[in-house]
Specification:
Number of strands: 11
Radius of gyration: 24 Å
Structural class: alpha/beta
CATH topology of the largest domain: D-Maltodextrin-Binding Protein, domain 2
Distance between the termini: 64 Å
GO molecular function: DNA binding; DNA-binding transcription factor activity
Organism: Polymorphum gilvum (strain LMG 25793 / CGMCC 1.9160 / SL003B-26A1)
Largest sheet: 9 strands, mixed
Order of helices and strands: HHHEEHEHHEHEEHEHEHEHEEHH
Number of domains: 3
InterPro entries: LysR-type_TF (IPR050389), LysR_HTH_N (IPR000847), LysR_subst-bd (IPR005119), WH-like_DNA-bd_sf (IPR036388), WH_DNA-bd_sf (IPR036390), YidZ_PBP2 (IPR037402)
Protein name: Probable transcription regulator protein
Pfam families: HTH_1, LysR_substrate
Length: about 300
């Protein structure tokens, strides 16, 4: 039983609240201590102190980690808002891209790095040379990275940011099939039957996300014979070159491969939608607002040029 102590603001310093949020996000005292560079006993002491303040156990053991109580869910939602608002207040009120030095952390995957990021970097070097950009591999963990404050912006087609995140559509793409130019499938129209008869490279994203074209293919009763299963689309062009394999990829990504592959209309009319996600922590920041607008602007140019 936890007895609620007399409320004392000194028990609610920002360091303690950040610890609470991190334990909540990671579901582990040990992992939180590692990221904070502290001993686990220090993290445990902080949580024990907050248990007395809030009059709740906050976490209960679950397997090798911990799970939050219902009351903890409510508390952490408020803590996120407080920490994000204070972070926003610390931002300088004025922002001059040419004179500002700042760090921005972007989480994304190979598609966004290959299709969107080159134009964004060229824009940054011209107009904001003092901004340093760190890129994280999001896989399907981008929303968790965003929630934990590990990144400032997420570019992803994967949904799931929750109520604490803002979202903006930045790019919509279609799918094409790519193959070696000497592949016999390039000699005609790639019908659904020809697609099913071909040998395929599948980008499976380690089973964590399913592209829409696969759902359409399954709905039409088309099953592709998968010869190679890849976790991501990196090096795809080189892997297909000189083989009889076919891959289904977003059209704008295929365009980055140049003449190394032939591009064929896919027999399924599926769309890929890429969104920006961010939280209240950076929502009002002049620097991050400018960067989000930059990404949207460059993505629109890419989409128009690729039509």
């Amino acid at each position: 039983m936890v007895v609620m102590q007399k409320f004392d603001l000194t028990d609610l310093d920002f360091r303690a609240l950040k610890t609470l949020r991190l334990v909540y996000d990671l579901g582990s005292f040990t992992r939180a201590a590692e990221l904070l560079g502290q001993n686990q006993s220090t993290v445990s002491y902080t949580i024990e102190r907050l248990r007395g303040v809030f009059g709740d156990v906050l976490f209960v053991r679950q397997g090798r980690g911990v799970a939050p109580t219902a009351r903890c869910d409510e508390i952490v939602a408020g803590v996120r808002a407080i920490l994000d608002q204070v972070t926003a207040l610390a931002e300088p009120p004025d922002f001059d891209p040419l004179r500002t030095e700042a760090d921005v952390i972007l989480s994304c995957n190979h598609y966004e790095r290959a299709v969107i990021l080159p134009a964004v970097l060229r824009h940054l070097r011209r107009e904001a040379p003092g901004i340093r950009l760190k890129i994280l591999q999001s896989r399907t963990d981008g929303h968790q990275q965003l929630r934990r404050g590990e990144c400032d912006l997420l570019l992803s087609p994967v949904h799931g940011a929750g109520k604490q995140a803002f979202r903006r559509l930045v790019l919509e793409d279609g799918y094409v099939c790519i193959a070696d130019p000497d592949n016999p499938v390039c000699g005609g129209t790639l019908t659904a039957d020809a697609y099913a008869a071909a040998r395929h490279v599948l980008i499976s994203y380690e089973g964590a996300w399913k592209p829409g074209y696969l759902e359409l293919a399954e709905a039409q009763g088309v099953t592709a014979e998968v010869i190679v299963d890849l976790p991501s689309s990196g090096e795809l062009g080189r892997l297909i070159a000189g083989t009889d394999l076919v891959a289904t990829v977003p059209r704008l990504l295929a365009a980055t491969l140049g003449d190394a592959v032939a591009r064929l209309p896919a027999p399924f009319d599926s769309r890929l939608k890429v969104y920006q996600y961010w939280t209240t922590r950076t929502n009002l920041s002049p620097i991050h607002r400018w960067f989000r607008d930059l990404v949207s602007e460059e993505a629109r140019k890419i989409a128009r040029a690729g039509r």
